[in-house]
Amino acid sequence: MVSFEVARKVPVAERILQEWGSAGKLDHAVTSIYIDYLFILFYVSGLGVACLFLSGLTANEILIRAARFITYLLIAAGICDVIENIAIMRSFRGAVTQVHVTVAYDMAAAKFSVIILSLLFCLVCIIFWISNKFAR
Fold first, then answer.
1. Most buried one in 70, 92, 109, 128, CB count within 10 A?
2. CA 111/CA 93 separation, integer angstroms
3. Which domain holds residue 14?
């Protein structure tokens, strides 16, 4: 699925769809998009709770405020994921246009950027928490 999300150009997206169609993978791709809607809820809420919890362990007001902001960014990432899924499904249904391919790419880039940011934030919080534990 990621290969389609980062296709960027219509000929690349059409080639991927053609390969998936001939290999019988297109039905699985559609199913995975429907499953992704449930996964969106899990990663947005899970990463949001992780950011809030880990920042709370640090007792650092700046990290706690940053966690709140990142939680909003994660909600935006979930919205980007939904928009991406809609664009991909339209492409799957035969409307492979540059707009759909570009929207899918841009939304995937935004989503992955926020997810990576939130994971790095969690890592920073863990490091900060551990360093505070040893400093005492």
1. 70
2. 23
3. 2-135
